[in-house]
Amino acid sequence: MATTEPTTVTAERTAALRELLPPVTRRRTRIGLVAGGLGTYWPQFPDLLPQLQESSAYVADRFRQLDAEVTDVGFISDAAEGAVAAEQLRRADCDLIVLFLTTYLTSSMVLPIAQRSHTPVLVIDLQPSERMDHASFDTGAWLAYCGQCPVPEVGNVFRRAGIPFRSVSGWLRQESAWRRIEQWVRAARVRAALRHARHGLMGHLYPGMLDVSTDLTLLPATFGSHVEVLEFDDLRQRVERVSEAETRERTALARRIFAVDDSVVDEDLAWGATVSVALDRLVEDFGLDTLAYYHRGLDGELHERLGAGMILGASLLTARGVPAAGEYELRTSLAQLATQSIGAGGSFTEIQALDFEDGVVEMGHDGPAHLAVSARDPLLRGLGVYHGKRGWGVSVEFDVQHGPVTLLGLGQDADGSLSFITSEGSVVPGPLLAIGNTTSRVDFGRDPGEWVDAWSATGVGHHWSLALGHHSADFRAAASLLGIEHRAV
């Protein structure tokens, strides 16, 4: 593949992608919001409550602008009202609950909200402005700036109650504080995506890949998600029902989205298109949010041909928002869903080689790829041999967009617990292999051999999701909401 600087993704390819089945619609992230202060103050300082309610309205409006479904249960002034709010938020089944401490309140007012909802809680305390006007302020005016006062109290009580504590302190229109708050909302998107996901697992483990093996019970136990175990016969049956017209239509679409190399055999492209149509139906019929697959096959029999024909359709599915991963990589398909949920894409990736002269790690993978991370129109290349696998057909090849990237892997430890593992780097230009793989040259700002040692020591498997932008902080926050460990390299 050429090594010139990447070009902007073409409008034609964007339009062609939109002609595919509409992007998958998922449940919106649900944010619960409650504001509060100590009701004892209201008769003492009549102007205080209206001022705090005005701040609460501003906060609610900011949350509604964050592409989330907001359940605002209003303003609480005592423990009884806190209990009512707790029940409302419990029924709302939120992905994150935000407690806005507008002034001092007692911890008894908010503890039931955290206890009864069984939902992660974020405490925010945003005073009206950068500082008080000390010369003119009386006690009532000061109390509007006293939201920080109960934060240590709430933190202490949450710890004693075994509830994880998170907080953002700042002032009402402080954009740096809102960026921190928005990070928690992005983390809630990850939690929502994994909590409600249906993960398709089709075929069997690639023989000998022990790191890929995943405890299927652990995923619903950790995240609440569902694993749908599929057979390749589920795909075969749907392939048999694809019409010639549907194959021609999907082939034409592929030619609009991809540059087609001369190595591509028409019959192989048609087969990939047929499998692609069947994959769409498989995903729709089983309500899948991700798909991981592998089948070894033998001597060109039908199931081998199905496995070899998956790359085109799996890449198009990933572009629609249903991440697909080969080699039965269930955990990596979850990592791809996590990176995709915050709008960062996420392509199936492993280490390919190290370039010690340029100080970069070369990484990528054969098989399905995320078109959103491509630097230019992706290429379909015909392969007579899939290295390490049986079968033949078309494969996707492109250079990842140059600039910041984040790796996210999902590790599993000796005790069975899952963890988010991240590393941030930058994709830089340089020579790339032209072998039908997604490829990238990632600079982690250190000796590439040392990076490999540190990355491997985390317990990450040999596959992960490569996403655009730097997002380790987002996934650290998401790990907190999910109740799992986060490790960064």
Automatic annotation (TrEMBL):
It comes from the Bacteria. Coiled coil: none annotated. The keyword Transmembrane helix does not apply. CDD domains: L-fuc_L-ara-isomerases (cd00578). One of its GO terms (molecular function) is isomerase activity. This is Arabinose isomerase. InterPro entries: AraA_N_sf (IPR038583), Fuc/Ara_isomerase_C (IPR004216), Fucose_isomerase_N/cen_sf (IPR009015), Lara_isomerase (IPR003762).
